[in-house]
Amino acid sequence: MKKIALLVALIVIALAASACAGGSSYPSKPLEIVAPAGAGGGWDTLARTVQRSLETEKLYTQPTSVVNKVGGGGAVGLAYVFSKKADDYELVVYSPPLIINTLNKTFEQDYKQLTPLAKLITDYQVILVKADSPYKTLGDLIAALKKDPLSVKFAGASSPGSMDHLAIAKLAKKAGIDPNKLGYVAFNDVGSGLTALLGGNVGFMSTGVGEAIPQIEAKTVRALGVSSAERRGGVMKDVPTWKEAGVDVTYEVWRGIFGAPEMSGDAKKYWADTLKKMSASKTWKESLDKLQWVDAYADADAFSKFLAEEEKSYKELMTDTGFIK
Amino acid sequence: MNFFDNLAMGFGVALTPLNLFYAFVGVFLGTVIGVLPGIGPMTGIALLIPITFGLPPTSAIILMAGIYYGAMYGGSTTSILVNAPGESSSVVTCFDGFQMAKKGRAGPALAAAAIGSFIAGTFATLMLMLIGPWIAAFALNFGPPEYFALMFAGLTVVTSLAGRSLVKALLATTIGLAIATIGIDLQSGVPRYTFGNPEMLDGLEFLVVAIGLFAVSEVIVNLSDMRQAVQERLSIKGGLWLNAEDWRRAIPAFTRGTLSGFFVGGIAGAGAAVASFVSYGLEKKMSKYKDELGSGAIEGVAGPEAANNAAAGGAMIHLLCLGIPGSGTTAIMLGALLMLGLQPGPLLFQQNPQFVWGLIASMYVGNVMLLVLNLPLVGMWVKILDIPLYLLIVFIILFSFLGVYTMNNSVQDLWLMVVFGVIGYLLRRFDIPASPIILGMVLGDLMEQAMRQSLMISDGNLGIFVTRPISLTLLLIAVVSITNPYWKHIGRGLRKLLGAA
Q: Which domains does chain A have, with CATH numbers?
């Protein structure tokens, strides 16, 4: 008898609790953030930093977790998130490969069905040469490439038609060099690309600023130009932008966060507020400093517009270079 | 003088109770991570990074380095006990390690793995300390052509894995090379043999194939003869420790494994898995007991286990002296160091001597800890074998499924593992060795990419492979090692021809 009473009491409490939560509805369940790559990479680090900031700043009161869906440059993660249609408790982080791999049809789904929530951070592309390279400025390098694009090979850490390659293709096109004729050598990771650069096997390297800073600081390499609109600070303060070097082009490696397709209006509103709060929070700002990431917060509307522009720009670039047929 | 001051300072840092504690936690976690198949040191360290935020940088790296080489120690355990490699670098250890266990000699096998790891780990640390920057500078000579030549030379190891028939081994190698082409091709961005399946875009995971071919097929073999399995148990015969004969045979293998592993993995940066294969090939060529390899020779454990640790130590040299990670795990450590506000690279020794020398000293300490931790564990591990085989099979299945699933949280990987288990069973029936498949997979991808990178650099000129001294030397080594069994015949044939003329 006692037991039944206890059970009834528990049920009543549980119902009351869920009714309370139901009042303001969202969020009432644990959150899952998908990192569409393995532990330790850029996407994973971003997903975990978001999770930690949400938890530490008590912005999300239900439990949160990060799940790694590894494979295919994000394809496995995307398929997973698409299988969770209309699930308001499923977030995922992505960067330009989301658009690139949709355009070149590596992804079967159309990323535009995801719910863009916010652009969070950004990195820029930098051109590195070995410290004793004959190319002292970006102008020198462009002049050499103009004479014969294949005379200076360059390394990057992803397949042709991906970011490291397309950034240079964009620059080359604007500088009047046929982006189709560049000598791009693809490496598995930044480390092997750097080894090839320092060993004199390639003439220059295209990589993200974040990855290049240790080598720039050690002066084993020289940074000829960075793809941001304005000069960066710190170690990068003496590195001219591509625009300063005479080619009016920028290239941005953004990272943002999305909800599953068909996210409800309530959830969208909740995340608009919460992500804005998070991006201004102390935990988030401290993490950015530690990771040397650049804050690039933009709300859902601005992010959507930005994505549309990005898609247009990539479409053009990838058609020029033959990666969209 | 300066050097001894530095080292003394390093031990001052490493021997503080706090850092000793972190070194112990690191090597302990590393051992556990190594034993569990699936969770590798890379994942282990990545998941720990948030915890290291609050630690002083030196303690954080001591913890991470401990996990890294701890995993190299632990990885051999399941290879030897249940034929399921814990890490990719321990696949080779299965070949002779599990055979030793079947003969009741799991104890000496585990002990030899731990001692080999200790010797190689200590050697690599010594090299880092004495000539680290010099090695790092030399490592830059390894560009794509040298990689290709190194992998090509590595392929000649197949003759050592051949068993009775070289043709069958070559067939298996080709299957491995073919499997290696699955996935997005790095040089063109085009998916190959993926059948529109997103999980295939990254190719097949090499541990999934290895665990399928070795562990799952072992289960099927045992199940196909259940009557025997019910009675049999792999109980321990002889001591748990190396006897005089073991020592005599293991010491040359330790030496060869350490040196070759340090060269292949440490200097050339080809990774611990390749290093362990090369070491196995070297044993097959140079050991006095080469005919016993494959059927439970201690050299087959001692050499590769030393090699994979020497390679791991070498990767630390790349990380600390060049700021360039030489392996997936050190890449994650680089990221963590940057977060801690340290810049690895040529300047690290000058800017943060406390950190570098503290780490070096802690690596010595950690290696001793691992030895002390692992040797008593041998007694515990071998007890696992003291259960009837039909129960042991359950363990093998458990380890295999758990390990493969935790790698990528992928159910498809489990199916693949089972498929490769069946393939492994069929291969055994047809007496085709499975290990060359793994060799082909390990080398195939790297070799293909390096070749195409080289040709991209040389505008398609094949001369790039023979005009560079290191590449040429490695190719010549490959040619010599393939042809040397036939020299006698060729010489005799030539003399006959000349005599007849």
A: 30-123+254-320 (3.40.190.150), 124-252 (3.40.190.10)
Q: Which of B392, B368, B454 is nearest to B146 (CA)?
A: B454
How far apart are the C-alpha atoms of B30 and B26, rounded to whole Å? 6
**CB–CB contact B457 A44 (8 Å):** no
Name the residue among A69, A159, A199 with its Cβ closest to that of B143.
A199
Residues 203-242 of B with CB under 8 A from A: none
SS3 B417: helix
Q: Residue A76 is nearest to which of B185, B198, B335, comparing CB atoms?
A: B198
Longest dimension (CA), chain B: 82
Q: Which residues of B are less than 8 Å from A215 in CB distance?
A: 323, 345
With CA atoms as reference, report the closest residue to A125 among A206, A197, A193.
A206
Closest CA to B273 of B67, B107, B143, B444: B444
**Mean of per-residue pLDDT scores for chain A:** 89
pLDDT in tens, A168-191: 999 999 999 999 999 999 998 888
CB contacts of A73 in chain B (<8 Å) are 184, 201
Better-scored residue on pLDDT, B361 or A2: B361
Cα-Cα end-to-end distance for chain A: 74
Give the number of other Cβ atoms within 10 Å of residue A52's Cβ.
Answer: 17
- The predicted pLDDT at position A18 comes to 47
- Name residues whose C-beta falls within 8 Å of residue A276's C-beta, 6 or more positions apart in sequence: A118, A297, A299
pLDDT for residue B476: 94
Q: State mean pLDDT over A161-168.
A: 93
Pairing of strands A204-208, A115-130: antiparallel
Low-confidence ranges of chain B (pLDDT < 50): 1
φ and ψ of A92, to 5 deg: -150, 145
H-only helix segments in chain A: 2-23, 42-56, 75-82, 97-103, 138-147, 163-174, 190-198, 209-217, 265-280, 282-291, 300-320
Q: How many CA atoms lie within 13 A of B117 on its CB side?
A: 36
Q: Where are the domains of chain B?
A: 3-226+234-500
ipTM: 0.85
**Tens of pLDDT, residues A258-293:** 999 999 999 999 999 999 999 999 999 988 887 778
Contact criterion met (CB < 8 Å) for B339 and A194? no
What DSSP element (H or E) covers A198? helix A190-198
CA angle A105, A111, A115 (to 5 degrees): 175
Lookup result for tokens 């070149």: A104
Query: What pLDDT is stored for residue A10 in this prediction?
Result: 52
Give the dihedral of Cα atoms B283, B287, B292, B293; nearest 10 deg. Answer: 0
| DSSP H or E run through B146 | helix B144-155
A9 pLDDT above the threshold of 70: no
